[in-house]
Amino acid sequence: MVVHPASGLGRAGRVAGTVAAKLRTVVDDLVTVAAGTVEESQRLMRAAPDLDLLVVVGGDGSAHQGVQFCADTGTALAIVPAGTGNDLARTLTGAPRDPLDAADALVTAIRDGRSSMIDLGRVENGPWFAGVLCAGFDSSVNERANRMRWPSGPRRYDLAILAELARLRHGRLTVEDDNGRRELDATQIAVGNIPYYGGGIPVCPTADPADGLFDVTLVRRATRFDLVRMLPGLRTGNHVDSPLVDTSRTRRIRIGEANGWVAYADGERLGPLPVEVTCIPNALKVVGQAT
């Protein structure tokens, strides 16, 4: 069990002992480690012996590190959500939002032997991702939200959205995928293995982490007024009904350069475009019930 104590403003550290006690009722051997940084988390995971299950107690950033360790290895991953967004835990394992309730659900899943295989995205010459890759307005919001210390949870992203509206930029985007190649003026693009990012925003509302395909949501050139009109629909997924939004599905996608846009995946900064990603079916075993 890897704990990121600072996740969720310290919530992960506060619940770790109780989570460990619950897990010990259903496993033969449990080793717990605490990681204060991404680098430390990676080092501890690399040093770990062969594992049946890696339990991550933390937020989406912590879960992302767990995905890197478990992807394509046969080691199962479970997530006890104790961060601010918790999009991966909500979607990949169906975990309740409260970490102790999630721990109880995980204990039941282990006892019942309940697990499933899900797809992952793989960045060419880069990391795996389980959630959403985005670029454009989305990634600008992500960069701002990651710098913010207040408020926590979804409201942080709401405020970041409003702040980025004031400096809205478009870009000439080249997209190559299973549907062909196109070049257009765009505001943002999201490539989803799961529906949610940003603390529950269903940017790719029909994405299924077990169908072997990404869902792509692309917003063509939009004004500030256009985006403001879309905002109410973001929380419900109705933004895809806008005439400025294109949706598609693909196994592979390459997103070309566009005015210095950067790409984010699972809330982690990848760097400037271009980026090419492929959906790898059944790449990760998760304990719980994928939804």
Automatic annotation (TrEMBL):
Keyword Zinc in the entry? The reply is no
Q: What InterPro entries does UniProt report for this protein, alphabetically?
A: ATP-NAD_kinase_N (IPR017438), Diacylglycerol_kinase_cat_dom (IPR001206), Lipid_Phosphate_FormReg (IPR050187), NAD/diacylglycerol_kinase_sf (IPR016064), YegS/DAGK_C (IPR045540)
Instruction: Look up the record and report any one GO term of the cellular component aspect.
Output: plasma membrane
Q: Where would I find the DAGKc domain in this sequence? A: 1-127
| Stretches assigned to coiled coil | none
| Key words, A-Z | ATP-binding, Kinase, Lipid biosynthesis, Lipid metabolism, Nucleotide-binding, Phospholipid biosynthesis, Phospholipid metabolism, Transferase
Cofactor(s) for this UniProt protein: Mg(2+)
The yes or no answer to whether the keyword Lipid biosynthesis is present is yes
Q: Which GO terms describe its molecular function?
A: ATP binding; ATP-dependent diacylglycerol kinase activity
Superkingdom: Bacteria
Output the GO biological process annotations, alphabetical, semicolon-separated.
phospholipid biosynthetic process
Q: Which family does it belong to?
A: Belongs to the diacylglycerol/lipid kinase family.
The family database entries (PANTHER family) matched by this protein are listed as: LIPID KINASE YEGS (PTHR12358:SF106), SPHINGOSINE KINASE (PTHR12358)
Q: What is this protein called?
A: Diacylglycerol kinase (ATP)
The top of its lineage is: Bacteria, Bacillati, Actinomycetota, Actinomycetes, Pseudonocardiales
